[in-house]
Write a structure and sequence with these properties.
Layout (H helix, E strand, L loop, with lengths): L1 E6 L16 H16 L6 E4 L3 H14 L4 E3 L9 H6 L6 E5 L3 H11 L14 E5 L6 E6 L5
Parallel strand pairs: 1-4, 2-3, 2-4
Antiparallel strand pairs: 1-5, 5-6
Helix pairs in contact: 1-2
Length: about 150
Amino acid sequence: MKIYLAQHAEAVDKSVDPARPISTDGALNAAKVGAHIAKQGVSINAIRHSGRLRARQTAELYAEHLGVSVIAESAGMNPNDDIKEFINGLNIDGALYVGHLPHLDKTLSYLIGGNRDQGVLIFKNAGIACIEIGDAEPSLHWYISPDIC
């Protein structure tokens, strides 16, 4: 099973807007990453997000570029939610999960190295990681961020 983890696009500061929608640059970066992975033939079957505005907006931009019609809020994806509960709920092959730090860092570190504080990857806003979960140990297949696509 392949899953994809993405940090939401850059958001405006809460002093500008307490709801923290994505910024203009954030929207451009999410669109750029979505278009890039679509061009590479990456197949996303569903997109789940934390429910926070910036994650939902990022998910919607990815969906637009990837031709995904199944987008939904998913519990357990907020910054300090329990990663083990989240990991136990990973059951959609080809799903893209759009969330927040430190949740994403800890989830990926736990999946890949068995230690949530290991620090496997430094996520960037709008960046997406592809993880293979199967009979063998989970592995990080690739990571793409706006500055490299």
